[in-house]
Amino acid sequence: MRATEIPIEDKVDQLLACLDKDSRHIEQNLSQLNELRRLVIKRDEPALGKLLESIRVESDRYRSNESERQTIRRELGDMLGCDLRQMTLSALQARLPKAKRAQVAKMKARLRSLIDEFKKEHLSTALLLSDCARFNNLLLKSIFEIGNTGTVYYNSNGTAKRQTDAAFVNLEF
User: Fold this and answer.
1) Are 77 and 86 contacting, i.e. CB atoms less than 8 angstroms apart?
2) Sign of torsion, CA 33 37 42 48?
3) CA angle, 37 then 42 then 43, to 5°
4) Tens-digit pLDDT string for the chain (173 aa)
5) What CATH number matches the domain at 5-147, 1.20.58, 3.30.70, 1.25.40, 2.60.120?
6) Terminal alpha carbon distance of the chain
7) Taking the CA of residue 57 as centre, how many other CA atoms within 13 Å lie in the half-sphere pointing to its CB?
8) Where are the domains of the chain?
């Protein structure tokens, strides 16, 4: 083993630890997306507020891991003579000894699987929220158009005038 391989392997170990935190963060986000959908369906506003606040706090905490990962990538790129944009897991994997290469490949596969699952869950959540917004818009539109015939009248000047005597609420019992 060459002397330069030891610092590179140490940096790879640091990167793998950082990526392990990333994978745990993605798993937590998957759980939070499921919880978000559940709370939206149940219309539990207090719990939804608490969940959204915990998501905000967790994302603030996670920023340090992101900066640590970028620092490690930059240092590995310098050691291997690569630009930061070129320092990907695939590029790193190609330049490592066999034992470390297997660890990086395993982490890469794990992250890819989690990211694919996250994309699917994110799409499901976005579709649910989109449908909720559409239903709310339809509901509001139907409420505000009650009693409105949609008839347009024209005055002697030729300007359009909508019916304005539509009742919003009928107070008769």
Assistant:
1) yes
2) positive
3) 95
4) 454 556 888 889 999 999 999 999 999 999 999 999 999 999 999 999 999 999 999 888 889 889 999 999 898 888 888 888 888 888 888 888 888 889 999 999 999 999 999 999 999 999 999 999 999 888 888 777 665 555 666 777 777 666 555 555 555 55
5) 1.20.58
6) 91
7) 6
8) 5-147
Q: Give DSSP secondary structure letters for the chain.
A: --TTHHHHHHHHHHHHHHHHHHHHHHHHHHHHHHHHHHHHHHT-HHHHHHHHHHHHHHHHHHHHHHHHHHHHHHHHHHHHT--GGG--HHHHHHTS-HHHHHHHHHHHHHHHHHHHHHHHHHHHHHHHHHHHHHHHHHHHHHHHTTT----EEE-TT--EEE-----SS----
Name the nearest CA neighbour of 8 among 86, 120, 85, 104. Answer: 104
